[in-house]
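User: I'm new to structure prediction. If I give you an amino acid sequence, what do you actually give back? Let's try with this one:
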Amino acid sequence: MTAALAVPTAAPAPALDGLPLTVGLAGREVLLVGAGPVSARRARTFLEAGAHLRVVAPALAPEMADVMAGAGDGVVVVVRPFTPADLDTPWMVHVATGDAQVDAEIAALCEARRIWCVTAGDAALGSVRVPARTAVATPAGLVRIAVDSGDPRRSVRVGRHVARSLATAPAGLRARRRPEAGWVALVGGCGDGDLLTVRARRLVHAADVLVVDGAADVGLVAELDDDVEVVEVGPGLPAARVADLIATRRAAGHGVVRIVAAPTLAAAALDLEGAGVEFQLVPGVV
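Assistant: Good question. You get back a string of structure tokens that encode the predicted 3D arrangement of the chain. For your 286 residues, that looks like this:
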């Protein structure tokens, strides 16, 4: 940048220990000042959130060129230095010019104009910080995890640890808002929670209804929420009635996991198909 910006006097930025938020960026403009590798990584993040990107920089790094090639109309690039007029339209600004003074000046302009600003070089200069993010998949949708420790690399490690923990020792994954239609998983297993696959355990902990042959594993049931319905299928209950029960629960918006022994897995699948129930099949450990 060839000349200093006219920066208004602004109060010092508060420490970023405030309120974590999920920001809806779909269809909204995000301005990226700087087009280096850091901006390219963040550009992909903002594009995943549905934002329209405007990039202003004197030159583009190869990484940003790659983002542009895959984004189509989602990115507008202006090859020139930043000017205050660039702040007329964005909802959020990401600054990573490589020049600490310029980053600070742009952050101060954003503060004066009440525009949320991320400063990649020094997070304390901005008003927003982007956390490390990961997700755990459930039948009712992704459970997204954001970690902000003030140390980006530590945040990434903590986020990965939490995601792995939820995958292997799942808890709290049930959806609380009832969808219009539920889901069904047919899981192979003997009912012993210790012998279920990691994927099967994740499904069990996301379910509203657990259907098992015989007595349910006490240890597994103890891990579940108190309001999870546990149905123990006795030898005298016809298979068709079990399939109808599952179909009824699914139609009511419940998530249902049916655990059956490996030798009867194929027969149970046919029963569900006969009742018109869509389901995912999760074979057990053989």
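You can read the tokens as a compact description of the fold. Here is one thing that stands out. The two ends are 65 Å apart (CA to CA).
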